[in-house]
Amino acid sequence: MSHAISEELLRRFDVPGPRYTSYPTADRFVEAFTESDYIQALEQRRVGSMALPLSLYVHIPFCESVCYYCACNKVITRHHSRAAEYLRYLAREVELQVAHIGNGHNVSQLHLGGGTPTFLSDAELQDLMAMLWRHFTPVPGGEYSVEVDPRTVTEERLKTLARLGFNRLSFGVQDFDPAVQKAVHRVQPAEQVFALVDAARRIGFESVNVDLIYGLPLQTPESFARTLAQVNELRPDRIALYAYAHLPSRFKPQRRISAVELPSANEKLSMLASSLDALMGAGYVYVGMDHFALPNDALAVAKRQGRLHRNFQGYSTQPDCDLIALGVSAIGRIGATYSQNAKTLDEYRDLLDQGRLPIVRGLALTRDDLLRRTVIMALMCQGEVQFESIELGHLIDFKSTFAREMEALEDLASEGLIRLNDTGVQVTETGWFLVRAIAMVFDRNLQVDRDRARFSRII
User: Fold this and answer.
1) Which of 336, 343, 289 is nearest to 315 (CA)?
2) Which domain-ending residue is among 301, 324, 347?
């Protein structure tokens, strides 16, 4: 069988590397970046960028049960009373934010992530949205999305989400195989997911995404092919296909997964290659970096038109904008800074009790960071870099500034991953499947620090 990309090429580029939801990546954040640095960024935006829309991210950490593969920041509890207290702290955090940035900013993108946002009751979700829209203003045509655990919603709950203004849903599916679901402690019948996606379409959600993971315990290329066939029958508007990274030393729930039950590296490669063929054969557009979309979905349209963007939630159709992040562990971006909230509930609450924003680390980007971020995001989103555009925007000579990188690009060109000429770099159709490896060429931190073990592998 002829694959969209050969398994041999995938194998050669299967190295650890960042996902580039930001550059520099979050592992470079430092505790020397403090609340006062963040406040300064907020107040600078208030003066200079009030008219530009914001993006909001709200982290809801609670889950009723643990999924063994999970690497997210979450709190496992069946005590739903904990959510009410958390919402009070979120409200306090928002009040501290708007005290510095100002009230009433337009918001073109909102995402509720977790954890399990649908851990909240309908009334709590309503209270949360009302609180947010007291301080911010949603704009028509924006993306308002929420992550949904199919086990926590009914058709009536989906109607509530629509009434609250959400127009995009993301269902966590991972795999439809019952044995795999049992092995990762996330049992949800396929019929349940099909019924919910059908209901979401009838209700009128603009886009439905399904998350899948390959490389889970007990998965085989044959079993995952069956899941893909069911997904193609389900036909969600978007699909996110992630590789499972087994890092039990970092993520405690993964210690419940038996390493002997994991598919081999060759089997994972086979799953990825077959997945690309199956999804693209079913008419999905490969947007890049794990993302697929139907041709008429806004994400696929944005890729065709060169309007794709990338933020901490992945690919987006919304213009690159500042992101206010709310809740425990949430990561935000204001101007030329990144920041992250406290990672534990106790520290998050303690800082807010002191009347302080819960910022515990972050980064003020240097001129070199901003230059490299522009190049990396151009590769990741538009699939090309025009040297003149970078030179005019950053007042550099591209080829001399990136002399070492140009040598590495020659090697990628010989592999057929890029086209390189005197005016720029263009990612080839094959190169899109390995765009992380191409972007890594311009990552100064990887050049200095060859210890990449903290990153998941590209494949």
Assistant:
1) 289
2) 324
The pLDDT value recorded for residue 17 is 81
Q: What is the CATH number of the domain that holds 146?
A: 3.80.30.20
Mean pLDDT, residues 330-350 taken together = 96
pLDDT at 458: 63
Look up residue 302 and give its two tokens: 């944005």
User: CA 420, CA 133: separation in Å to the nearest integer?
Assistant: 47
Pick from 272, 310, 385, 301: which is nearest to 109 by CA?
Answer: 310
CATH of the domain at 3: 1.10.10.920
Residue 345 lies in a domain: no
Instruction: Count up the domains in the chain and report the number.
Output: 2
Q: Is the pLDDT of residue 113 over 90?
A: yes
Distance CA 84, CA 211 (A): 28
Decide which of 290, 307, 324 is a domain's last residue. Answer: 324
- What integer pLDDT is reported at residue 46 of this predicted model? 87
Same domain, 167 and 226: yes
CB 52 within 8 A of CB 371: no
- Domain membership flag for residue 329: no
Mean per-residue pLDDT for 291-311? 91
Tell me, yes or no, whether 113 and 19 share the same domain.
no
Cα 226 from Cα 188, distance rounded (Å): 16
Q: Which domain holds residue 458?
A: 1-24+366-459
Q: 8 and 63, same structural domain? A: no
Q: What is the pLDDT of residue 1?
A: 44
Return the C-alpha torsion angle 241, 446, 69, 311, nearest 10. Answer: -50
d(CA 214, CA 142): 31
Q: What is the DSSP string of 316-364?
A: ESSPS--EEEESTT-EEEETTEEEEE-SSHHHHHHHHHTT---EEEEEE
pLDDT for residue 320: 73
Question: Whole-angstrom Cα distance, residue 75 to residue 65?
Answer: 9
Residues 6+ apart with CB under 8 A from 261: 183, 217, 218
68-99 b/e (C-beta count within 10 Å ≥ 16 → b): bbbebbbbeeeeeeebeebbebbbbbbebbbe
Q: What is the mean pLDDT of the chain?
A: 92
pLDDT digits (tens, 9 = 90+) for 117-167: 999 999 999 999 999 999 999 999 899 999 999 999 999 999 999 999 999
